[in-house]
Design a protein that fits this description.
single chain, 281 residues, Tetrahydropterin Synthase, Chain A, seven-stranded mixed beta sheet, 19% helix
Length: 281
């Protein structure tokens, strides 16, 4: 017999890709459990299933950087509950990060995708299952989107929770109205601007290298510890404010209004799945 829990939870995270670099992502998780009935005539109580799986996803995947530890593009070391890593991608680009170990999930795989993360997660979850549970399938899938969207990563140093981690992200829709009418062209253009982007606050920038391909160096201290990140300048977008979704929606609206000064602009910026902020100018 099987027990299913569709749309169990969603996870917002970033991961390392050997071509795209640092990629923000949002997945929706569902579970399918095989097993016999226990003394209560259940495979596993729904309330317990949802609590165990949601808590584990929140603790171990959500708002972390997923790192494929068997990839040849990765070098890393762990020192005193911190991780220092370097990731090569694309045509010779490099990203580095120095952060608390809890800011990453070390995935035993050559690459990050829904299947490798599912396989790794099931192994990690095994000790949480009751004896009558024979098998579990954990599936991850991206939101089905038929309009413009972008992948972005960021870190919110002022946040008390896991949003403070310097390299976590989202896959997000964007909706824009110009003079009260949806403007799909503006949406597509903005999504193209922010393809696999890292959105940073100007006050977190501590240096830019003078190399042929400049690297931007970001650092800040947050409740969980000290964070540092370097990325090619070409994949970074600077904001004068924090990079909360409220600030992001306001920034997009103001930028588009500056580019279209005679128009009223409304921006609905999503932060992952079914949440976000709206700004009007």
């Amino acid at each position: 017999m099987q027990l299913f829990v569709d749309n169990l939870s969603n996870v917002d995270f970033s991961y390392l890709d050997d071509q795209r670099g640092l990629v923000g992502e949002t997945w929706l998780a569902s579970a399918l459990l095989d097993g016999g009935l226990d003394k209560t005539s259940m495979i596993w109580d729904f309330g317990v299933v949802k609590k165990v799986l949601r808590n584990w996803l929140d603790d171990q995947l959500d708002h972390r950087l997923l790192v494929p530890t068997r990839s040849s593009h990765l070098t890393y070391e762990i020192l005193q509950e911190r991780i220092i890593l370097s990731w090569s991608f694309g045509s010779g680009d490099v990203m580095t990060m120095n952060a608390p170990l809890e800011a990453v999930a070390l995935i035993d795989a050559e690459r990050i995708n829904d299947q490798t993360v599912s396989q790794w997660s099931i192994k990690q979850l095994a000790s949480h299952f009751p004896d009558n549970l024979e098998h579990i399938q954990l599936t991850f899938e991206a939101e089905e989107i038929h309009s413009a969207f972008y992948h972005y990563s960021h870190g919110l140093k002022k946040h008390d929770g896991n949003c403070q981690r310097i390299a976590h992200g989202h896959r997000s829709r964007i909706q824009i109205w110009r003079d009260g009418a949806r403007d799909h062209e503006l949406e597509i253009n903005w999504a193209e601007r922010w393809t696999d982007i890292y959105i940073a606050s100007e006050e977190d920038l501590i240096g830019i290298s003078d190399a042929e391909n400049p690297q931007m160096h970001f650092a800040y201290d947050a409740p969980q510890g000290h964070f540092e990140l370097t990325l090619p300048q070409s994949v970074c977008y600077m904001m004068a404010s924090d990079t909360t979704v409220e600030c992001i929606s306001a920034h997009i609206a103001q930028t588009l209004h500056d580019e279209n000064p005679n128009c009223d602009i409304t921006v609905k910026a999503f932060e992952g799945l079914n949440k976000g902020a709206i700004s009007e100018i």
